[in-house]
Amino acid sequence: MPAARIGWVVDRMQQLMRQDITNPPLAARFFAYSMLAGYETLAQSDSSLMPLHGRLRDYPRIPRPAGQCQAPQLAALFAMLHTAGQLQPSGSGLAAAAAALTDSCRNAGIPAAVVAQARARGQLVATAILAYARQDGYNRISNYPRYTPTAGPGYWSPTPPAFFGAVEPYFNRVRPFVLDSAAQFRPPAPVAFDSRPGSGFAALMREVYQTSCTLTPAQRATAAFWDCNPFALRENGHLRIGLKKMSPGAHWMAIASIACRQRKAPFAHTLQVHTVLAVVLTDAFMCCWDEKYRSNRIRPETAIRRYLDPTWQPILQTPPFPEYLSGHSVISTAAAEVLTHYFGPTYAYTDTSERAFGLPDRRFSSFRQAAAEAAISRLYGGIHFRDAITQGQDQGRQVGQLALRVLFTPVTNPR
Amino acid sequence: MRKLLRLGTAAICLQAAACGRPVPVDSLFTLLPATETNIGFRNDLREDKRTNGFMQATAYMGGGVAIGDVNNDGLEDVYFSSNQGPNKLYLNRGHLTFEDVTDQAGVAATGVWKTGITLADVNGDGRLDIYACRSAVAPGSNSRNQLFINQGNDARGIPGFREEAAAYGLADPAASMQAVFFDYDNDHDLDMLLVNYNTSWFSTLDEDFIRRTLTTPNAAAGLKLYVNQLDAGRHYFALDSTSRIRNTSLARGLAATASDLNLDNWADLYVSNDFEAPDYVYLNQQNRTFQDQAARQLGHTSLYSMGNDIADINNDGLPDILTLDMLPADFRRQKLLMGDESVETHDMRVRAGLNRQFMRNMLQLNNGDGTFSEVGQLAGLSNTDWSWAPLLADYDNDGLKDLFVTNGFLHDYTNMDFVKNIGDSIDMRHGIISEAEVYKMARRVPSSKITNYIFRNQDGVSFTQANAAWGITGSSNSNGAAYADLDNDGDLDLVVNNLNGPAFVYRNNARHSGAGAFRYLSVKLQGAGHNPYGVGAKVTVYCPGQQQLVEQLLTRGFQSSVSPVLHFGLGSASGIDSVRVQWPGGASQLLPGVKANTVLTLREATARPPRPIPEPRPPAFTAMASPVPGICAENDVNDFKRQPLMPASLSYSGPCLISADVNGDQLPDLFIGGAQGFAGRVLVQQAGGGFRALPQAALLADAGSEDAAAAFFDADHDGDLDLYVGSGGYDTFLPDDARLQDRLYLNDGHGRFSRSPAVLPPMRTSTGTVAVADINGDSYPDLFVGGRVIPGRYPEPPRSYVLLNDGHGRFTDHTAQLAPALQRLGMVSAAAWADLNGDSYPDLVTAGEWLPVQIWINQRGRGLRDQTTHYLPARHTGWWNTLLLTDLNHDGQADIVAGNMGLNTQCKASEAEPAELVYKDFDDNGAVDPILCLYNQGRSYPYLTRDELLDQISLMRPRFPTYARFASATLTDIFTAAELQGASRLRANSLRTQCYLSTPGGRYRAVALPMQAQFTSVFAVQSLDYNHDGHPDLLLGGNVSHHRIRFGNQDAGFGCLLTGDGKGGFRYLPQRASGLSIRGDVRSFALLNNTLLVGRSGAAVQAYRVRSK
């Protein structure tokens, strides 16, 4: 089974996320459980993959059917598709992917019984992982009061053009995988709101404003490349068009696929990279979201239009949640820690994942370089202040390093 | 005549109902083919990458129709506008045949983008001229409007026109939708209001930007008023920049109508604006300035206001306003097309200074006292889809103005699946969408033609859709329209301009229905000076028991103007008593003995000069300074954030207001309940009638509770009145919150209260009502306490209590023994005691949300038994708010008045088609999921949107990946049979505020209250005798300003005064006669001598003095 099939599953999941307009934290959660199902299935036949029970929070003992799995990699793919199919709103769309996978096996001459066995074993593990997912508290969120923007001048309120409500205000109540709690890496409070000229906040505001006024083509390209807004709305009269991109998490999953492909990593290793990354992304989002709805800080768009220039617009559309911390900074930095762990600090690659969105390929000398660029792109894009970026990077680093400690003590290197 | 004038709507209803209607020949209207009429006009749209709805906001707004006799041959001619092609003039050659004379007349009007057209005698020479608007399509394109001055006829009777806009000063280059010619300074020439549409787009309308845009003038987009400066016989129109009509960049003007809204004989204006841009009510200040009174006089307006019309629809002599919007009638399209409702966006707009705006058609009934009651939903006119032109006129000649609505939009841009997914297919090169891409998209937008609507006015305020019966069928994308009697047979024909389709010419057959045909009167006006068509004149026709007002307003509806010949249907009235005309400025004339079925010509030259408007009779109530200080403050909570699927908010139920003498000085004092965080107040009456708050430490200590209900009674048998306060509310209380415990405060005889501990059983229930009576005949007052809700667990039934008094003011819970059925009755909002069966034991009447009005007969102190079906004609389950038991028909027996949701709402409920609430924790996540189901077009559907469902029950996401799939889903399509197992179901079959009258047999009969009682949700009912005739009258108060956005505010009530006849019959006294103008959410009344106190949620106690004998 080619390792690229893992990236193929990720891509199919991403197609559905695009259709469903899955928000960034939830997208990471979908990836995490789906990858875990695949990982666990393969781990039952591959002792090089460390067991996760005891490493991830509340991680169950997965039932292992008797007998030898004849096609464990195939079973892993089926497990991933089955899990995603159940979790994602448009998950029934993955039936076609499973059918295509079956067809390709038949064409490759794999006996039908082997495929059927792989499918059954994959589903068995998927069922256990789905039960684990159901216990993570996500579905209790509709039990909580809906978010009400904090009253007062320095706080977040919905932003133009669509004034969408706050996304996932209770994501910090979802069970994390490796963190003690979403508040484990609570950052320092943001620079205090103060609209008076000369204040620290005014300086942050002015920096975003002036950066946007003097934006170079290169900076503009950087901002566009890392936009990763799952749903930007263009409005013109009664006409509204939703413009969609990959979420930040999906972007990094795609980068992982690119890196694995470039290294020609074997199936098990590729799967491990994707799984660890998805788990870390989910926890990173939890940390970040925990702070977002603690500080509930105003977005540059709202602040600058109110205090500096009523006509100002950021070049990226402001995403619908509070400003501090910058989510992209947190999760990109965390992701870079994971990928650096696997591929080293100087692993150069070309990111081709944004082609589908009309954006050019982009060359990076390392994952950390890419993450740093993703972080600063939010300043260029006019959607974050500097402290949300730098503190976000710190938090991301801490999440990434903690995850690596939790998962790789003692260190395992399947290569 | 005065007598006639005072005859109200009630008399008219009877008359209209009694007269019956003639059997139609076929249907009221017949669509005539172009082969017969020779009207081959089509407004065909050629779309390209520049011309489409994505690039141009006005692309699918179509064109208009203007009708009038341009060659003065006695036949009405028709002019159409075409967006891209030539405009067309068709001369009426009789018998509904027409001749295209566009080229001979020279009125093709060049260029694009042509929009509204209007006929008006701009130069006052007795010949109708044509003003044709143009909107800009691209920067630099010629959008100057054109004025075709009528030069008179040639030998064939064809009029010639010359384009003279520049010479008249009217070649305005703004992006115009329509012009309104009217005389705003009463100098007998026509001035002009130009309505413009800002075609550039704002994508960032946040609070600050709205404020800024609203105060930024924009010559190309804002409203413009032109004054006609007649000098030496030459007309020149100059821009009037001092009129105080707001010229703003935030202008999406689609229509304006000039009507004398306040009857001061000066023309006022209503202006419709699309999107968040506010509508305006410009009242003429009689000094060449206007003042916008929309925020003050209208509770709310349409959001996407399209066309409008102004006419007196209830024949009370006051012009009413109708605006169109885009809310579909069927749930399927509502759910497919609607965006997320966001209270944040709504509130942000209000904060920024915009009116409260909701997406539906609005019918603003003129109360004649500076207020309007918006009753579009009660009237049945609120949901007509993507609508453009409303035309209010009497199409069936029955004496009541009906409504025609054009409908349709070439591409359904608001289709939610489209919005969410179309972007996927865009080829974005470097983040920029090319024009070609946009055009490709525009063509892929689903197109949906819709039928136009026609509604028959039944009684002045209720309308029934009559499309099929009247022959308005078939779908189209219709825009402008106009009416006129094209064949001079005494009824109004209709002409409609269609996008990408042939124009409609509908012949009206009302006069062809044989001997029973209703009669009519046509009126032509000959005004003085340079206003020969008498624009602005008001003509009133008086028939026995009826008056009809029609104003001479040519520009009506959307992009169009109607015939200058006024039309009156007379029904089967035996004759016309008289006709009165009031010319602009006030000259008037009264003509007795006018014959029906004729054309009457009225001449201003023979009118009497203006006389001062007579002083109205003093009203029944006069507002006075409130003797009660302070505000009944409310804590600001949004219940929908806690339980998003609750139909209505429950946190704004106060203030309760009760009165009694608490300090023994024989003067009634007051208790006013406080909301959570605000202590209740005891106010003692002073000698002069003022009130002073007595400090009450005990009440202050309990400020954390919400005082939902209260009662004064002597609990401990010491001769003074003690105070029971029911703790209620929803707010942020937990289901078992200690702050929900009810409280008993004992009086020290001087009005100082102390909380008596441990005298009540544990009652951590959000109380809805408390009612006092000696249940068991031991002469000590006992209590019924109704539970309203379990906070956070709506609609699970809370506890209700029957509490017995031991004589020392200690109460014990006897519900289980006396009335087990009352323990978990449901969400009780009101209760009252009265002896209904004459056994001297008090019986209990209860009502509540999703509950019937229920009668519990006291079993001589040994129990309370539900005998509703014996006493009441039916189990009317409703969303009851309040009950009043009092004798209304002088039989010594208590009658029942029950306040309900009313009929002015999106919710409809009847026995055959009940509203239902199905609830269960469907996804087993600990939250109750209440699913409101309403009937729509014969089937019950969940009312909630797809987004609301997915937000509440995340496991539904896979079931409904698209809006389309959800839009037509019924309850059983959403939930499996297994999931529905164990779900509870509540029903409501009546939302009417209702009166039940006792009959000699002891049973009750339901009697309908006047329709005005159904205008709003009723929360307070007071009986009184305001006119001192010895018969009890009723006062109803209510309103709700905390509904979900999709329901909108209920604000049509201003204190509804019903005059009783002593037999249980009631007549509505109009607001201008009652003098009541109570705004806001009324929750309680108190009547102390001749002072009426009104408790309003979050507002000061308002006071009125009752007119003395």
UniProtKB/TrEMBL annotation, chain B:
InterPro entries: Crtac1, FG-GAP, Integrin_alpha_N, UnbV_ASPIC
Entry annotated with the keyword Signal: yes
Matches recorded under SUPFAM superfamilies: Integrin alpha N-terminal domain
Pfam family, one: UnbV_ASPIC
Coiled coil: none
Keywords: Signal
UniProt keyword Signal present: yes
Gene3D superfamilies attached to this UniProt entry: Integrin alpha, N-terminal (2.130.10.130)
Residues annotated as domain ASPIC/UnbV: 534-601
Top-level taxon of origin: Bacteria
UniProt-recorded name of the protein: RNA-binding protein
